[in-house]
Design brief:
Elements: H1 3-17, H2 24-50, E1 53-55, E2 61-63
Helix pairs in contact: 1-2
Length: about 80
């Protein structure tokens, strides 16, 4: 995400923290920026996990992406 967009998200957050009301246009802009940020964050995290390997004490290697989900992960 571009630096300008991150700065704009922070400007809007600061405005709310100061107790100011956001206009309807600002609320829509904030929602769109948040959606874009979350989408890019998830894509980045997926890329990191796709390249992560667990090395067991016996020397075997297992890709994180290949691991089955446990019951705890499904909750």
């Amino acid at each position: 995400m571009e630096k300008e967009k991150l700065n704009r998200i922070n400007e809007l957050a600061a405005k709310v923290k100061r107790g100011e009301q956001l206009t309807d246009a600002e609320l829509e802009e904030r929602a769109a920026l948040r959606t874009e940020y979350i989408r890019e964050f998830r894509a980045s995290m997926t890329g990191i996990l796709d390249n992560t390997v667990i090395v067991r004490p016996d020397g075997t290697r297992e890709q994180v992406a290949d691991r089955p989900k446990s019951d705890a992960d499904k909750k």
